[in-house]
Amino acid sequence: xxxxxxxxxxxxxxxxxxxxxxxxxxxxxxxxxxxxxxxxxxxxxxxxxxxxxxxxxxxxxxxxxxxxxxxxxxxxxxxxxxxxxxxxxxxxxxxxxxxxxxxxxxxxx
Length: 109
Known about the structure:
This protein has a single domain, classed as Immunoglobulins (Immunoglobulin-like), CATH 2.60.40.10. By secondary structure, it is mainly β. It has strands at 6-14, 21-31, 42-51, 56-64, 70-72, 77-79, 83-92, 95-104. It starts with 5 loop residues before the first strand and ends in a 5-residue tail after the last strand. Helix content is 0%, strand content 60%.
């Protein structure tokens, strides 16, 4: 993550068909070693793009610490647990096309 607490994820989408098409690009996050049970894939953003045949566009998502937070009843409150995360890009949760990893640092790091 950047010093301002955000992460920017960009992906190029190309229409390889012969007709204008629409695609929904979805961004999911997976906490690799969460202390509490969390969903395997948490939807954090999506974008609908329309492309002419052969056209390419870049879809960009920005996520912040708040997007990585979850409610911890032991605190009680919202926390962003430091550690390893995966960002997943796909057409749906069942159709992931790209994966990358990143590390969320503790507030004082």
